[in-house]
């Protein structure tokens, strides 16, 4: 728990259970950590 400074998700969130994914990110991210999210372009 709370062991990562950064969590990065690149073009894959559309394949995930979003609420569960975000809960897990919150669980593993250190206080003051950075969450980077990139989503694919619809085109």
Automatic annotation (TrEMBL):
Gene3D superfamilies: Vaccinia Virus protein VP39 (3.40.50.150). One of its GO terms (molecular function) is S-adenosylmethionine-dependent methyltransferase activity. It holds the Pfam family Methyltransf_11. Residues 1-37 form the Methyltransferase type domain. InterPro entries: Methyltransf_11, SAM-dependent_MTases_sf. This is Methyltransferase type 11 domain-containing protein. It comes from marine sediment metagenome. The lineage of its organism: unclassified sequences, metagenomes, ecological metagenomes.
């Amino acid at each position: 728990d709370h062991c990562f400074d950064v969590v990065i998700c690149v073009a894959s969130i559309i394949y995930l259970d979003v609420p569960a994914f975000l809960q897990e990110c919150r669980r593993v991210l250190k206080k003051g950590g950075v969450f980077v999210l990139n989503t694919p372009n619809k085109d």
